[in-house]
Amino acid sequence: MTSTDTAAGLSDTERTVEHLDVIVIGAGLSGIGAAYHLQDKFPGRTYAILEGRDAIGGTWDLFRYPGIRSDSDMYTLGYRFRPWENDKSIADGSSILEYVRTTAAEAGIDRHIRFGHRVVRAEWSSASSTWTVEAERTDSGEKITLTADFLFSCSGYYRYDEGYTPDFPGLERFDGQVVHPQQWPEDLDYAGKRVVVIGSGATAVTLAPSMAAEAEHVTMLQRSPTYILSMPAEDALANRFRKHLPARVAYGLTRLKNASVAVAIYQLCQRYPEFMKGRIRQLQTKWLPHGYDIDTHFTPRYNPWDQRLCLVPNGDLFRAIRHGEVSIVTDHIDSFTKNGIALKSGEELKADIVVTATGLNLLAFGGMTLAVDGRDIDLAYTMAYKGMMLSGVPNFAFVIGYTNASWTLKADLVCEYVCRLLEHMDEKGYTNCVPERDASVDEEPFLDFAAGYVLRSVESFPKQGSKAPWRLRMNYFHDLVTFRHGKILDDAMTFRGSRPPRSLTTGH
C-alpha cells in the first residue's frame, strides 16, 4: 500500500494523511525485532517505526553509566533470528547497542525509522478500521498524523525522561554531587572520590564494582538486600559449540540450554524456596571474605525470585568487597548532611558523590493515550490478552518481556504471534481483531512482582486475568507452544470486517 492508498470509508481530509499497514512504536531492542519479523513475513507490507528519541537502541542507548551491561545472557537476550557472536555471554551496553544497530542496518530497518517522533495519541475508528496516530516532533513541536491498519507498541514500560528518586530529607544541604544513573553526566569525574551508591538492584550492583577501579572507595547503601549470584562472563559451552557447529545451530542450542536453565532455576525458587536460599548462601560464603555478615547484607526478607535475581559477571562485586574497594551498608537514611548521609543508626557516610540508583518509573506505552471511537481508554479497566493485547482495543499489540528471564525470549514470541494473527486475517479477509474480556474471569495485577518500581505504578496498568488466555504466564516453554503453535481462534478473540483476502507476498 502506498501513501496515496486509503482504506475504504476514509474522508477526503483523511485521504491526505499518509497510511501504513503497520506502525511500530519504539526503535529499541523490541521495535527492531518487530520490524524484522514483519518485513520477513510480509515483504510487501508498509510500515514505519516511530521513535521519540534521536537514536536506535532504547535502553541501551539511553543509559551511559559505568559498567552498564546485560542482566541476562546474550544468547537469550539476543534475537532468535540473529546469532550473538561475541565471546561474552554477559555483555557491556556498547556491545549490545552495536548488535541492535547492526541488525537494523543489515536488514534495512533503519530506513523505516522516523526519529524524534513521540507518539502522544492513537485513536481507532471502527468505521474505517484504521488507527489515527498523532505524534509530536521533539525538535519543533510539530504535530504529525499518520493512519495504520495495525498498531504495535514496542516502547517497553519504563519512563525514559526521568528515573525514580525518593524525597531525601536535607538533600539541599549536601555539598557534593548527586547523580541518577538515567541522567549520567558524560564529564563526571569520580577518580579518587568517595562515592555512595544508594540502591541494591541491578544498577547498583553494576555501578559499585565498576566505579571502584577509579574511586577512592565505593559504598553501596541499601535499605534491604537483594539476592545476588555470580555468573561467568563467558559461556564456555556456547563457545565450544561455536567452534564445532554452524553459527545458527550453535546459537540455537545455547539459547535453548540457557532458557531451560533460567526456567529451571525460577521453578526451583518458587517450589523449594528454603532449599534455594541455602544454596545461594553456600555460594556467597565461598565468594565473600571469611566471617562476612551475609545475614545482614545478602539475605532478603523475601524468597528467591519474588523479585528479580541480580547477576554479577565473574563475581566482580564479591571480588571488590574482598579487596576492600566496595563496602555494603544496610541501613535507612535519616537525612543528607553537608558532607554525606546520616543514617538511622547514627552513622554518617562521608561522600563526594552520591549516585541514586533508586529505580525507574513505569509508564505504559510511552505515555500515549489510546482511544476507540472517540472514547479514551483507561488502561486500568482493560485486561491483557496473552500478555500482548488489550481487551476492547482492536488491531493493537504490545511487547512486555519476562521478569524472570530474558526480555527478548518473550518479545520474539509476541512478534511471531502477531505475524500469525495478521496472516490469519489476510487469509480470511478480516479487517480487525479484538479480544473481548470474559466477565467471569477474576482480575489480578498485570505484573505479579514485588519490586518497588512495580508496586508504585501497577494500579495504572492493565489487569491480567485468573485464567488463560488472560493470565500473564512467566514460562517461556509454555508460551513457546502457545504463541508459536497454538490456535489463533479462541473464545476470547473476535474477528470483524470483510475485505478480499490479500497475498502475503505483495501485501495487497
TrEMBL record:
Entry's Gene Ontology cellular component terms: plasma membrane
Protein keywords: Cell membrane, FAD, Flavoprotein, Membrane, Monooxygenase, NADP, Oxidoreductase
GO molecular function: flavin adenine dinucleotide binding; N,N-dimethylaniline monooxygenase activity; NADP binding
Cofactor: FAD
Taxonomic superkingdom: Bacteria
Protein localization: Cell membrane
One Pfam family it belongs to: FMO-like
Catalytic activities: ethionamide + NADPH + O2 + H(+) = ethionamide S-oxide + NADP(+) + H2O
Coarse class of the protein's main subcellular location: membrane
Described function: Monooxygenase able to convert a wide range of ketones to the corresponding esters or lactones via a Baeyer-Villiger oxidation reaction. Can act on long-chain aliphatic ketones (2-hexanone to 2-dodecanone) and on aromatic ketones (phenylacetone and benzylacetone). Is also able to catalyze enantioselective sulfoxidation of methyl-p-tolylsulfide. In vivo, likely functions as a BVMO, but the exact nature of the physiological substrate(s) remains to be established.
Homology family: Belongs to the FAD-binding monooxygenase family.
Protein name: FAD-containing monooxygenase EthA
Species of provenance: Rhodococcus oxybenzonivorans
